[in-house]
Amino acid sequence: MPQSLSAVYVHVVFSTKNREPFLHDVRIRTRLHAQLGGISKTLGCAPILTDGVEDHVHMLARFGRTITQAEWVKELKRVSNLWLKKHQGFPISSGRVDMLISL
Question: Are 64 and 71 in contact, with CB atoms under 8 Å apart?
């Protein structure tokens, strides 16, 4: 029986509120990247690369077939924001930029 293959890659960028450099601590930033990767994996969107600097985070993931982009981003922001508030009081801005990468 034939199977369907879906390979959609999504690059999402989160910025800190007002582009403040809240992620200046490399240890927190590294742990945040790991958290985002784990959240994405749990949501069925395999993380490929998560990185960033003091005021924003980039994430590239292979998008899953069981979740919408809006649900994925909402859950990434919700869970990571809770984690960061617990560790550093980090406000994430309400905006985002999604870029679809086709291969």
Answer: no
